[in-house]
């Protein structure tokens, strides 16, 4: 029952974030517990035969919650600071404590000084500043950022964006607020410009990546987890009734 409760909590978190930009669903992994060896497999059953054994399992436990890094669908917003990554890369942002965090959510905003940051105030890395008098901002699929300024006939290049990827993105540590940090399971970040040879992917300006949660699938998993929870509860009640009957016979 405890294991299925953890499963339900994970499913509930996935469903609650089905509309969160850049969210990646989690999936609980289980493994069985130790076994009671009433008869060891391979023990002699007779002079000519061996026994397949009699082992009774003692339940299950959750061992990890894997992050599923499949690509979410794109939602067109036409906001020039909304970016979606078509590929495996992550945006890099600097947190208030100076450490780097990584996100798939590209819903960026500007400070009053024109610095690009995420909705939580974490600055995009490499730092990018857009002049307040810019009439338009363009970000190419390869991360080149240009802006058109008053009195100029040609766009001015402001910088080039970088993305990061990991040997095992499923092992990233989730911090909340759409942010991840590396762990020993994910490996260290590999950075490159979009469209490079390291498989970062390319950028789509004016789009956001939707959550990769499939609501229908999550509801099916929720029903299965609920039925498993109820079945385990009935097993406990049945076992309790059996022990009560045995105690009654002893008395």
Describe the structure.
By secondary structure, this protein is of the alpha+beta class. The chain starts with a helix and ends with a helix. The model has no long low-confidence stretch (mean pLDDT 91). The protein has helices spanning 2-16, 215-250, and strands at 26-32, 35-39, 54-57, 60-67, 74-76, 83-86, 91-94, 100-103, 109-110, 116-117, 123-125, 136-139, 144-148, 156-160, 163-165, 173-176, 179-181, 190-192, 202-205, 207-209. It is elongated, with a radius of gyration of 27 Å. The longest helix is centred in the C-terminal third of the chain and has 36 residues, at 215-250. The chain is 20% helix and 32% strand. The strands form nine sheets. A three-stranded antiparallel β-sheet has the order 8-7-11, with no helix packed on it.
In spatial order, strands of the major sheet run 8-7-11
User: Count of DSSP E strands?
Assistant: 20
Parts with pLDDT < 50 across at least 5 consecutive residues? none
Biggest sheet details? 3 strands, antiparallel
Describe the global form: elongated
How large, in whole angstroms, is the Cα Rg?
Answer: 27 Å
Please give the count of helices: 2
